[in-house]
Design brief:
The structure holds two protein chains of two kinds. By secondary structure, chain A is mainly beta. Chain A has no helices and eleven strands. In chain A, the strands form two sheets. In chain A, strands 2, 4, 5, 6, 9, 10 and 11 form a seven-stranded mixed sheet that branches. Chain A is globular. Chain A starts with a strand and ends with a strand. By secondary structure, chain B is mainly beta. In chain B, strands 2, 5, 6, 9, 10 and 11 form a six-stranded mixed sheet that branches. In chain B, a hairpin with a 7-residue loop joins strand 9 (83-90) and strand 10 (98-100). Classes of the chains: A mainly beta, B mainly beta. The A-B interface holds A 4, 31, 33, 35, 40-45, 48, 50, 55-56, 58, 90, 92, 94, 96, 100-108 and B 4, 6, 9, 32, 34, 36, 43-46, 49, 51-52, 86, 88, 90, 94-103.
């Protein structure tokens, strides 16, 4: 069983730039959720993808967008980066319809915006 | 609004002492509560969920709907329990969104 993987591990961008983060879900999982974790805080839900469509969104502006591919992997795109976007971005996969709602997390991508 | 509160940022105990990590939630629906743990240099992982009513690594947590709490307890702390602990709430219906508390760092000293 392959766990959730994310790339890159670290990233440094300049304010106003765009960034794409990638996630491969755990084998057999069809749902991917993205979370933002600022320093000293718990993860905050950004959005979730199921069957290649956005299936729920947290309180994040439209410049945060995503994709899910037929192999269930996913991308998080952030446009017009702001300093406050500096955070650890976590991807979590799960299997829809199984109940229990357990999510399996990746190691995260640390984004620094300067 | 849905919210999870973990009042302690840091809980420091000695090995063998009892541990209680507090978690309170705010949600008008039927909640599903979880405890996630992050050990040093490891990814966030599920510790236990209230539905299962299980004990994992000696930890238990009981959902108290009257007090809207889901405190994590262990009678005798071990040094390997030192980690960051997050309480999380999953909303009923629709999609699988988790609302996390800010976390409590547990430090168990020898």
């Amino acid at each position: 069983e392959t766990g959730v993987t994310q790339s890159p591990t670290h990233l440094i961008k300049t304010r106003g730039q765009q960034v794409t983060l990638r996630c491969s879900s755990q084998s057999g999982h069809n749902t991917v959720s993205w979370y933002q974790q600022a320093l000293g805080q718990g993860p905050q839900f950004i959005f979730q993808y199921y069957r290649e469509e956005e299936n729920g969104r947290g309180n994040f502006p439209p410049r945060f967008s995503g994709l899910q591919f037929p192999n269930y992997s996913s991308e998080l795109n952030v446009n017009a980066l702001e300093l406050d976007d500096s955070a650890l971005y976590l991807c979590a996969s799960s299997l829809a319809g199984t109940g229990g709602r357990e999510q399996y997390f990746g190691p995260g991508t640390r984004l620094t915006v300067t | 609004a849905q919210r999870v509160t973990q009042p302690e940022k840091l809980l420091s105990v000695f090995k063998g002492a009892p541990v209680e990590l507090k978690c309170n939630y705010s949600y008008s629906g039927s909640p599903e509560l979880f405890w996630y743990v992050q050990y040093s240099r490891q990814r966030l992982q599920l510790l236990l969920r209230h539905i299962s009513r299980e004990s994992i690594k000696g930890f238990t947590a009981d959902l108290n709907k009257g007090e809207t709490s889901f405190h994590l307890k262990k009678p005798f702390a071990q040094e390997e329990d030192s980690a960051m602990y997050y309480c999380a709430l999953s909303l009923s219906g629709g999609y699988n969104k988790l609302i996390f508390g800010a976390g409590t760092r547990l430090a168990v000293h020898p």
